[in-house]
């Protein structure tokens, strides 16, 4: 079995030197660059427990590299999601257990994740949960998605009208959301 390389996102080229999934051990291997003392992280990563795997990876990375920003972690997570189909296919192909194939989680509730450069964040519109999904062009366009399907997993927005901590972004209607986007497009960055 050979490692599955994970593409290093452009914004992490100065941060990461090696990024791969070691399928025989079900580990994510991340080696940082010289500015991070060439630190190497090995973290168990099981596709049949994605939410737990991502939570533990985030905890380990933040403990090992305190200077790692949230946007850098989100880019790392997005890169893993980008290779998730390959990882699942490889595990299904190589799985010789009694089960015969990998049984992965079917539904996950998330507040925010990045895949293929698109940010997906949980919001409330008209008392209904959605992911607001950014347009890749950076034009400020967006779409509202009730669910997103990737590699056999269904991702649902975690926030709903009873979410207490942290409070979700909430809009009375899609028109109100449009008003905020129109205002934001007219703002100047200082």
Short description:
This protein has 190 residues and is an alpha+beta fold.
Question: How would you describe this protein?
Answer:
The protein is an alpha+beta fold. It folds into 2 domains: 91 residues, no CATH class; 80 residues, no CATH class. 27% of the residues lie in helices and 31% in strands. It has 4 helices and 12 strands, in the order ββββαααββββββββα. Strands 6, 7, 8, 9 and 12 form a 5-stranded mixed sheet that branches. A 4-stranded antiparallel sheet has the order 1-2-3-4, with helices on one face. Strand 3 and strand 4 form a beta hairpin. About 5% of the residues have low confidence.
Question: What would the keywords be for this entry?
Answer:
190 residues, alpha+beta, 2 domains, five-stranded mixed sheet, 31% strand
Structural class: alpha+beta
Instruction: Tell me the fraction of residues in β-strands, as a range.
Output: 25-35%
What radius of gyration results from the CA coordinates?
Answer: 18 Å
- Percentage of residues assigned to helices: 25-40%
Q: Report the total helices.
A: 4
